[in-house]
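User: Sequence in, structure out. Go.
Assistant: Echoing your sequence, followed by the structure tokens.
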Amino acid sequence: MPQITDLKIQKHNPNRLNIYLDGEFAFGVERLVGAWLSIGDEIDPAKIEALLRKDELEKAYLRALRLLNIRPRTAFEISSRLAKAGYGEKIIEPVMARLQEAGLINDQVFAHTWVENRCTFRPRSKRVLVLELHQKGVADSEIQSAVCDLDETSLALQTAQKYVSRCKDMPFDEFRKKMFGYLSRRGFNFETVTEAINHTWQIMQVEAETLT
């Protein structure tokens, strides 16, 4: 039975451990995975196979954590990225379960946070918000829960306010043209866009009169 003759921390990745069997390098694993190993231990092929599988699981989990450290992601986004990296379902499924049990992935929370951030910083129509969440793999029920309280007219007015400073000195025809294009590109329909433009223009006129 092969015997562990040396354990060395990798030079370029101190989180991984090189394992030597019978005097020769055999394989590397995450230090967390190999923490129980000791020089002199005998290790049979079945244990080696189990160790390598555990290492694959840990590497996939750490890859998922790095993705989540960049920004929150849905379960679909994480599983897709792991699949793209070459991991199969036997690795992806337990990794996803571990992430969900730890509360690191929650599509319902993601959907509500996404909608809240969009409405605060980059408002757009409910239709576009639904489409964006669909593209991220969020379930219909969770999407509807996140957008059910949104008011399309209010969203259009918020969106117009984000843009109004760029065209506030224009005559009405030019203002309307610019604002119409801006709101339409963000998914609002003709009636909602028209109402938002007229309302925003009226607010601007009141503010201008107040300043004079």
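User: And one key feature?
Assistant: The chain has a mean pLDDT of 93.
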